[in-house]
Amino acid sequence: MTLKFDLSSLARKKVTANNYEAATYENPNKDVEYKGTIKKDFPIHVQGHLRNANNNDEESLYGSALDSYVKVEKVGDKYKYTLRFKKGLADVGGEFYPFELHKVAYQGKDIPLTTLASNGNTSVKEGSITTDKLLEKIQLDGTAPYPNGALMSHFVTLKLYYETATAYKERPVKLEDVVAPAKPKPVNPAPTTPKEEPKPATPTAADHNVDADKVPNTFPTTVKAELNGRTTGTASIYEKCIC
Predict the structure, then answer these.
(1) What is the pLDDT of residues 223-234, one digit of tens each?
(2) CA quadruple 187, 191, 194, 195: dihedral positive or negative?
(3) pTM over the 0.70 mark
(4) Which of 93, 109, 214, 202 is nearest to 147 (CA)?
(5) Residue 155: φ, ψ to 5°
């Protein structure tokens, strides 16, 4: 029996907003209950971040769309979390795209989002989640339109940091526009002319033959010699063995 495998789907290619495909499998993570002690009375503000659902050590693609101040309050015997969403900037394969979340879902149900402010170019929306227990990790599903118009859905983990808890204070709504950074222009280095090495000076002194009556009768022998510059006088005197 011969087994054949098609590995073409594993080929790496540049990912852009036009070809990105979000995972559609079930979020493997579960909500996590907070076991610590809250040192403030409810309602409180805590820092919150959207993390990659499959690796909470990494920020989610949608991380920049969450206002990091999350309101947490106790309503009867349940806990309510109020989230604000703003315009974000997604990094897709090294290219940046402004986006706004189209919808956010919790446990398969869309969270109603209310628009608090809008100027036609950006907006701030608010939505709430209610749970039976006080949670520090909440599994969400965010959906946003990409520049090509396609709606992309991503599982994200809302991570809440209760050690940052402060007394709740009503905060004004701020509209902040987001602009993708300009792509750097390619730099073409100016051509350089290779440096020419100086040519060695041509000797001006010709070689000299030794007079016949000065040639030693036996070899090896030692004679005195002078090193003369190519264009100047004597440089040094040394003894040389002629073998």
Answers:
(1) 666 666 555 544
(2) negative
(3) no
(4) 93
(5) -75, 135
